């Protein structure tokens, strides 16, 4: 990997880590479009670019989620009982998600990502949270909910917070507990999704040097290191900046990134 690409991934990882700490969101929706653009610029095989961007984004969550979970756990905010109930379904769904993605061509996968990000941006822009109307399901219900969260997260390379947080608040989990618990769920999502992307990607022809299945290891290393360093800075800045206003700005940014991915899907 040449110096210009290293610098680009350093800047990207720093920005994503800061945004994650500042706004309490995962970086997948930011990472995927920018990694897509960088790999396109470096003339990677076009049929692999979207798959590699999503897989690499998902793999970074294994590292970035740990510091977030530790911080939330120290405040006693993680509902570990909910984690235990959702995790089995999430592990299965996060393995299946990349397999579904492999069956889709690059255009279809980019289109799915664009629609998902646009919907998530709308949720953030209007700060829509479903009112708690029921309790958490049990047994098969939680396994099924975890499976849906895992499949969607594995397909778009995100930590699942845009799905798991609304689900938990709908089930009367307090919002700060839902956010903290979602952070804890990011690790099993990323772990199963990463292993799946390695397994299903290994059979693909023309993988670029530095790839492990669909994962581009140099990008994973640089982005993860940078984001882990800047995430605490973002969390500190959250106490001094108007986060609600920043979330609206971030939502508009997501619309722009969704538009880029739509362009990639239609080009």
UniProtKB/TrEMBL annotation:
Pfam families, sorted = TauE
Record's subcellular location = Cell membrane; Membrane
Question: Source species, please?
Answer: Actimicrobium antarcticum
Q: Where are the transmembrane segments?
A: 6-36, 48-70, 82-101, 108-126, 146-167, 179-202, 214-233, 245-263
Membrane topology classification: Multi-pass membrane protein
Q: What is the official name of this protein in its record? A: Probable membrane transporter protein
The Swiss-Prot or TrEMBL record describes its family as follows: Belongs to the 4-toluene sulfonate uptake permease (TSUP) (TC 2.A.102) family.
State whether keyword Transmembrane applies.
Answer: yes
Q: Which UniProt keywords apply?
A: Cell membrane, Membrane, Transmembrane, Transmembrane helix
Q: Per its UniProt record, what InterPro entries does this chain match?
A: TM_pro_TauE-like
């Amino acid at each position: 990997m040449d110096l210009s690409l290293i610098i680009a991934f350093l800047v990207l990882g720093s920005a994503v880590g800061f945004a994650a700490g500042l706004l309490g969101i995962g970086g997948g929706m930011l990472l995927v479009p920018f990694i897509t653009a960088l790999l396109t610029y470096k003339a990677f095989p076009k049929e692999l670019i979207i798959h590699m961007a999503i897989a690499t984004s998902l793999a970074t969550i294994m590292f970035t989620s740990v510091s977030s979970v530790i911080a939330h756990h120290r405040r006693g905010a993680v509902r570990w009982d909910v984690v235990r109930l959702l995790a089995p379904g999430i592990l299965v769904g996060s393995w299946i998600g990349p397999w579904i993605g492999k069956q889709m061509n690059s255009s279809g996968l980019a289109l799915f990502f664009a629609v998902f990000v646009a919907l998530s941006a709308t949720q953030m822009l209007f700060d829509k949270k479903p009112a708690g109307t029921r309790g958490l399901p049990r047994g098969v219900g939680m396994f099924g909910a975890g499976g849906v969260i895992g499949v969607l997260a594995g397909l778009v390379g995100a930590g699942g917070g845009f799905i798991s947080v609304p689900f938990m608040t709908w089930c009367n989990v307090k919002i700060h507990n839902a956010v903290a618990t979602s952070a804890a769920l990011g690790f099993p999502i990323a772990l199963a999704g990463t292993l799946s992307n390695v397994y299903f990607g290994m059979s693909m022809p023309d993988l670029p040097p530095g790839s492990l299945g669909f994962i581009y290891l140099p990008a994973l290393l640089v982005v993860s290191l940078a984001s882990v360093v800047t995430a605490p800075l973002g969390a500190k800045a959250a106490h001094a900046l108007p986060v609600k206003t920043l979330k609206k700005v971030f939502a508009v940014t997501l619309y722009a990134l969704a538009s880029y991915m739509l362009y990639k899907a239609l080009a």
